[in-house]
Protein 1
Amino acid sequence: MRIALSGYYGFDNAGDEALLKAITSSIRRLAPEAEFVVFSGAPEKTSSEHGVQAVYYKNPFKVWLELCQSDLLISGGGSIFQDVTSPRSLPYYISVVALAKLAGIPVIFYAQGVGPIKRYFSQFLMRLVGNRADMITLRDEKSLDLLWEMGIIHPPLLVTADPVFSLQPSAEAEQRVSDLFARHDLTGQPLVGVAVRQWQPLEGYQAPLARVLDNLAGQGYKIVFIPMAYPEDAGESRRV
């Protein structure tokens, strides 16, 4: 089986890269013979880090060719079906789904977090193409409710867990983290990991969060900021 994967891959977003690893490793445990091709913003990097074939996501000819040679498209997780960060994001990802259906292969939305979707045209595209998917799995109830509100009712819709929870870190990865903690004197004490993002609807959260973290630090906790999207989240972490 050859599986094409579409998502926010190759952009140094730790969450989406973990999601890609979780999807491919989970499928490989069930079907070791499975082959993957990933539509990526950095194909060489994706191939090196994940051990998969990858092509540039904005090359329509390569994307179409790979879809025609695949048995399944997985539109993978994160929050790619939304239109608040960019009006171009949702039309792109939904167009890949449309191309897959034109190529005659089944499509699965894999543990998607959907929304916000504010624009009428975005809602129209989701309704037009989403109802032609073969299965939709979602990572939260709000995403399910939003799809129902938009009239996406044809494929089976299921709420499931985020695939990242299925990740099993290798001994090598655990050792790298242990070495990193030791190098920064983060061993032998309670840690609080913090991941923040610049998100306009939440603007103003920085000061209350900082007070909470100050309080925890006063109780002996070490605060560790984890920029999931680099370098953007590093700047937001410094604000807090």
Protein 2
Amino acid sequence: MMTGEMIWKKAIHTWEIGAFEIGRLVRSIDQTAFETCAREIASCTGRIAVLGVGTSGAAAKKIAHSLSCIERPSFYLSPGDAVHGALGLVQVGDIAILISKGGGTKEILNVIPALKTKKVRIIAVTEKEDSPLAKASDILLKIKIEKEADEFNMLATTSTMAVIAVFDALCIALMELTGYSREQFAIIHPSGAVGERLVSGKE
């Protein structure tokens, strides 16, 4: 039976693993690929569809929201719904960010032929550069961690955190790259504590 101290140690272990992997991103992320992604998203005249399944889907929803918050119009697209007509949401001039840890997720691969036909730029987010997803992409953003937090090294914990951290960094870079202003943020985020600060002019 686990004691309270043992439970707490698991929490500390999880945070330490996460901190290590986030700190390692500065060495593991390809700088050129990161810059290319930033410039592609900044210059996109259409919208950005973000797709993922399972935990990658949860990360995709967060990424789409963050991009929209900095005036890069984005939406989460369910891969399952996509191949049943929802691909009509994606048009020429759009970008699709496809997230799959192993790069072989069937639901993700199923949308690629239609995206190619529609001439949609594909950014692949995966840890395997030789995967079907990576090979089908226009831009590969490889995000690979050494260890998940669980003892089986299977539960998508640290890997999901790393994907979100990379796109958080992209959003911050995009704010500078596009000249995104506090005034713009105030227009689209008038509610909540953040909205109150923006409207009142408080730091």
Protein 3
Amino acid sequence: MQQRRHFHSFDALRFFAFLKVFLLHIPVMAFPVFNLFREGGGTGVVFFFVLSGFLITYILLEEKKASGTIGRQRFFLRRALRIWPLYFLVVGLAFLSSIVVGHLGLGHSNAGYEPNWFMSFTFLENYRMIATGSHPNVSPLGVTWSLCVEEHFYLAWLFLLYSISLKRIPFLLMGCLLTGIAARFVFAWQDWPTVDLLTNIDYFAFGAMPAYALVRYGRDFERKLSIVPLPLKLFVVCLVLAYVLASPFVNYPGKLHLEPVVFGLGFCLLIMSIIPSKNSVRIGDGNLFSRLGKYTYGLYLYHTLVINLLLRLWSKAGFSLEDPVTAGAFTLLCFAITTGISLISYRFIELPFLRWKERLPMARNKDREELTAFAAPDRS
């Protein structure tokens, strides 16, 4: 049976991407420097897309190279067991939240549209957002658009990679890059929010590029990445992080259409800087950020629910977010509660389904040597 490779540092990077989104949704204005980290929180979602493009492409192409085909039902079941349980639970909580808030006398937001259970439960919330030009008025449905895009990507990518040969993958990736750019031009012309697969497909393609090279060229590609000088890798990492922080405060001609390419390419280079097994640029699995990164899915889904509920309780108690002390306490409390809920959720909701997922057979390998062509698999 094929053993999946574990990539170091990815869990920590997931956590940092979530943290960027979390800070965006914290309504704190008491610290002017806070805006440096708060603005541009959407880049966290962009990184999730690029990383998904890498991981899903690597999984599918590795299986196709090893066995000659892709187990479509197995892949679909594994993705469903990973995504659906927590997603459906949180969407259900969203529809119950208005009742709970009403009983607590905390008021209800009228901003946005009333959610529709069919659109929410069938991963079509993002298209409802496009059609209305607005967002759902209950948490956390507003952040589920990215999960809808991810789900649509899984299905489209499974079909595409199953249907075409390895040598034609570069043409597919180039087509996706051009499609993403063209789709954003159309959406900008129509003033539609870019929350669908077509306007984000190039992010996934940027992540798929190193995955394709890793599978196609194996040890040779990883060796070339390994010999890149450490100062150059650190320079790339620092440059990407600096642009992520500076982007909301920098304007230049064509930024609306050029910046997605900059982010996609930058995150692609970031992934390439850390994927070799033997690498000085790494964040160990025992690191606190890597440990928290295991719970990123729950953190991402629960955080707006916690923030908005606590915000109402905070206001009802008479506390102000203009005061640095109370604003700091609010931020830390939101993070602590979100983390606690995510840990419990992972243990009792996600983990049982993940264990079922790991029991599903993986692709049989025709050639065992092919499995470790570029590196011995890390622990999974």
Protein 4
Amino acid sequence: MSGNHQEDQNDIARKFTSEIEAVFGGDLGAVILYGSAVRGGYRRGFSDINILIILERNDTRKIFEAGKRTAALGRKHGITPLIM
């Protein structure tokens, strides 16, 4: 993977995480990047970006809000969030 792809991938993950933090605030336990993005097998345009979101407290309204705020970014970059 070239340095530019890694940098792009990290920027995308940071933007996504920033939106998630804005919605969940103190209820956010962790945001974890996993899958090919971590193993070094990420291929732009082919691979998705797997992100695990761990919440301290489940709030359905906030989950829907997070979905709205991150939908365009998720579609554009193939982000596959999993919320627990």
